[in-house]
Design a protein that fits this description.
mainly alpha; single chain; 210 residues
Amino acid sequence: MLSISAFLGLVTMYVRYKQVEALTQEEENIIIRLNRIGLLLGLISCLGLCIVANFQKTTLIQVHILGAVLTFGIGIIYLLLQTIISYMMQPLIHGIGIFWIRCVLLIWCAGSIVSMFISSVTLYSMIPTMDMAKKLHWNPAEKGYKLHLVSTISEWSLAFSFLSFFLTYIRDFQKITLHAEVDLHGDTLYDRLPGHMHVGEHSPLLAGSL
């Protein structure tokens, strides 16, 4: 499911990139650069989510943590760039309301990351890393239980803040349509036409739009 989510996140980020690109004038260099950097960071964040999905904490915890850092560490920079872009595009492209919504979600996300980082670092300093990786069940009386609880709540809060930020794209995406266009360089796929072939005998390669 996380791998599927990473793919859907990648598609969402690409559509957002194309929409901002279409709405931006050529002389608006800052927005164009931020948009391109945002797409690159989004790709890295989705890669991190794939790493989290395929390297579980109970098997390779170091790789799992690396994936989490890429997902959320790079991901929050992506959210920051998109929030800045939203600010720079108002009031000509959209109202300031959507900027404030994304700004609040960004702050929520940042707070969750700080809370999760502090509680996790403190917890791992109390309990060896390998023991933490194999620990699936907690007893309220155990050492580090409260820190584990704070870390878990922060992790879920972070996930919800990320998802909520992407949900703010819904209204924007209702005002865009993407099309797949095919430009044929010839009537066949031959480099040279055989003697029995006739130029001009072809059928449409793609009909409809996305």
